[in-house]
Design a protein that fits this description.
By secondary structure, the chain is of the alpha+beta class. Helices cover 37% and strands 24% of the residues. Helix 1 crosses helix 13. The two termini are 21 Å apart. The protein binds glyoxylic acid and manganese (II) ion (2 copies). The site of glyoxylic acid has 4 residues, from loops.
Length: 401
């Protein structure tokens, strides 16, 4: 595949959801922008004579062959983004999946098994807070009753958002028949680090995903006047929040782990008022589950200790938790051995990590020279993306025959 040919399909999607002048993307699930992305996918799939369906959880599927036959070889990723994220995280896997079908046909492959490209819904959890929501619901890893209670930052329920898009909220939930039809899943993704750049390799294969979780801290104190309240009389939850953020960084470094507070929400959020409540979302990841648990416990203890000092209260809730994923099945082995690509772990979460508990799964990474992700500077050359399509085609071709 030439770089130009990759670019032609890539550029048909890239204007959608480009927000403001920072070059970042805002493609949150079930928004008008997301619906345009979904329409783009449906049109591209129909242009290729693929059978398109939307499943009970809002994931989109484009089939080459009969899904009922079983043993399907599925590739794909997601089209939603973090706020002002890069353009590649997600869409690269979807675009590459469509192009890989073109390449399989050009190579004269006659699949013995159905082949599909999937677009999973709400992978980033940027709108409703739970990452990989579409694949978690499908595999039964997330309770649909809980999903229906999820709200976005404006207070919109997930049920309303999917209802608006024509989906029946009552049908959300596990889809064992669909899952049982999948024989292999391959997700191609932009690399979210610089390992491939350092190795001078355009494509890599995933070995593992670190366990990770999202936690919400609610700090409550006493709202009061910023000008008249003596410093010694305050119960300021912003101080507890700030101390917790500093503790997060320190504790993560001490554990050789990654932990981040990238989102806060303060009430009433006024310059001349001491806050009455401050919420912070912790994203924590470590190489193994035990370290992750120790890390999160240590951060919680530091928050509670500081709250006692500040005379504030702290409550912590786990919003999502994903265990360690090791890509050690036949599909990953085939990818590692046949594609002559380096093998590397990642700290990022993916639908492939959710699927891996049920289906033989592999991930391919495409070199990202900036190493940056979840930010506008995320990048990949068209030539590397085209190389990614060729490797994906090689692997799908082996799997479907
Ligand atoms: C998904 O991109 C995640 O790792 O947060
Ligand atoms: Mn992401
Ligand atoms: Mn992603």
């Amino acid at each position: 595949m030439s770089a130009e040919r990759f670019a032609a399909l890539w550029e048909s999607l890239s204007p959608v959801g480009k927000a403001g002048d920072d070059g970042g993307y805002v493609r949150h699930s079930w928004t008008d922008t997301d619906l345009v992305c979904r329409e783009w996918f449906v049109e591209e799939a129909l242009d290729r004579d693929l059978e398109v369906e939307i499943d009970r959880n809002g994931n989109l599927w484009a089939w080459w062959g009969e899904p009922e036959q079983g043993g399907a070889v599925v590739t794909g990723s997601h089209l939603d983004s973090v706020p002002h994220g890069g353009g590649y995280d997600g869409p690269l896997g979807v675009v590459s999946g469509l192009l890989a079908i073109d390449r399989l046909r050009e190579r004269g492959v006659k699949p013995a098994k159905p082949v599909a490209v999937v677009v999973f819904t709400e992978e980033e959890g940027s709108r409703f807070g739970v990452p990989c929501l579409g694949s978690r619901l499908m595999t039964g890893a997330f309770d649909p009753a809980k999903a229906l209670r999820l709200r976005d930052r404006e207070g919109f329920h997930l049920a309303e958002a999917i209802g608006r898009a024509g989906l029946d909220p009552e049908r959300l939930g596990p889809d064992p028949e669909r899952l049982a039809r999948i024989g292999a899943f391959v997700e191609l993704h932009i690399e979210q680090g610089r390992a491939l750049d350092h190795l001078d390799a355009p494509v890599g294969v995933a070995s593992a995903i670190w366990p990770h979780g999202r936690y919400r801290f609610d700090f409550t104190g006493e709202g009061n006047h910023a000008g008249t309240t003596r410093m010694s009389d305050r119960h300021d939850p912003m101080l507890t929040l700030a101390a917790t953020v500093l503790a997060t960084d320190e504790v993560a470094r001490m554990h050789g782990a990654h932990a981040t507070v990238g989102r806060v929400d303060v009430a009433p959020n006024a310059t001349n008022a001491i806050a009455s409540r401050a919420s912070a979302w912790l994203d924590a990841r470590a190489a193994d589950g035990e370290t992750l648990q120790k890390l999160v416990d240590a951060i919680r203890q530091r928050a509670e200790r500081r709250a006692r000092l500040d005379g504030t209260q702290v409550a912590m809730a786990t919003e999502s938790l994903t265990g360690e994923v090791a890509f050690t099945g036949d599909v990953s082995r085939l990818a590692a051995l046949e594609l002559h690509a380096p093998v590397l772990p990642t700290g990022a979460g993916h639908d492939a990590g959710v699927l891996a508990g049920h289906v033989d799964t592999a991930m391919l990474f495409v070199r990202n020279p900036t190493g940056i992700s979840h930010a506008p500077q995320e990048s990949a050359s068209h030539a590397d993306c085209a190389a990614g399509v060729e490797k994906l085609t090689d692997l799908l071709g082996r799997l479907c025959q």
